[in-house]
Amino acid sequence: MDKLPGSIVDQLDTGAGICDVDSFLFVGANVTLVSWLALSNENVRLSDHLSAKECERLKKAVEKNRSFRFKKSISVRGRDQSIDFLVNLIEIDSKPNVMIQGAVNNSNTEIQALIRNHEDLTEQSNKLLRQEKDRTDAANNAKSAFLASISHELRTPMNAILGFTGVLRKRLSDEKNIQLIEYVSESSNALMKLINGLLEFSTASSEAPKMDVVTMDISKTIKKIVGKFNALADRKGIALKCIESEGIPKTMGIQLEMFDQVLSSVLDNALKFTSEGKVELTVSRDSLLKDMLVFSVRDTGIGIESCYLESMFAPFTQEDSATNRQYSGVGLSLSICRQYIDQMAGKIWCTSEKGVGTTVYFSLPCGN
Questions:
Q1: Domain boundaries defined on the chain
Q2: Which CATH architecture fits 111-205?
Q3: What CATH superfamily is the domain 11-105?
Q4: What CATH fold (topology level) applies to the domain 213-365?
Q5: What is the pTM assigned to this prediction?
Q6: For every one of its 368 residues, what pLDDT tens digit does the chain have, with 9 covering 90 and above?
Q7: Across the strands, what pairs with 293?
């Protein structure tokens, strides 16, 4: 194998040189090392590039014929580079000499480059995420504003239809016409309920409504809300019960409008999906968190398949299309309940068994 020409060796990014073993005076070096250590001048010693401690270590290493390593920061092609140097004893023409070799340590440079690339990519990703969030928020706000606007516009003529339908119902005496006007009234009430749901959803989806916290008699408030559903329960032949466990506070501070909406929605759902049996509301203190009041509404209705439980609090969600056709509605009430419960620092969840019934729980801080 032929030796590499000296011209090629001189062009490598590896420095190499020979020093006198006693004086550490450079007696030869390739172009790279000459450039790194400024060896163009005569009488340059290896020790000139070392600290006092490094010089002592170099002398001891040479005396014991051991390797000596050191690092030096050098400008290479306009960039600061960390150079690793290795010093060993070698024999040339049977005489000991000191050989020095140096190589660019790219690890720090590569690591710094990777860090810079990572930071750049992270910043770009964060910028894209912020832009996407702004677009999503703008779209949600536009949607909420549209729903609120259209709901308000629809409620005005619907209130007129309901009002005049009631007046017309009182003026009719023919049973057939009375039945027809009752169909109109029932359909109008169903449509008004849907409009109210959309308006409530748009309100809950936008910024949290500012509702004052009031101190209420918890027992009286619950009974008042439950009382709104007694007539519906009687018409369906369903027993509607309210059980208050011992130890619940007499009063508690709460956002009354939100609480009314949540409890009313849960009771309404329970009655809607129950054709026989009972709906039972239980109020008790949390067994572990004594400052939390737990409300549970248990029904003996159609129940829900376990695979649908996770999505029951998502907007516009019902168990399946058949349920939607049979019981109507667009699946907004539980979504609104979750948003209101979150705003009141509570939690809402449910358990269910298909064909047996469903229990919806929600907890709220009672403060004492």
A1: 11-105, 111-205, 213-365
A2: Orthogonal Bundle (1.10)
A3: PAS domain (3.30.450.20)
A4: Heat Shock Protein 90 (3.30.565)
A5: 0.51
A6: 344 455 555 556 788 899 999 899 998 888 888 888 888 777 888 888 888 899 999 999 999 989 999 988 888 777 778 888 999 988 888 889 999 998 887 655 555 666 677 777 778 888 888 888 888 888 877 776 776 677 667 777 777 887 888 888 888 888 888 888 887 877 777 777 777 766 666 666 555 555 578 888 999 999 999 998 898 899 899 999 999 988 888 888 888 888 988 898 899 889 988 999 999 999 998 777 778 899 999 999 988 888 777 777 776 555 554 554 455 554 567 877 888 888 888 999 999 988 899 999 999 988 65
A7: 285, 364
Residue pair 33/16 in contact by the 8 Å Cβ criterion: yes
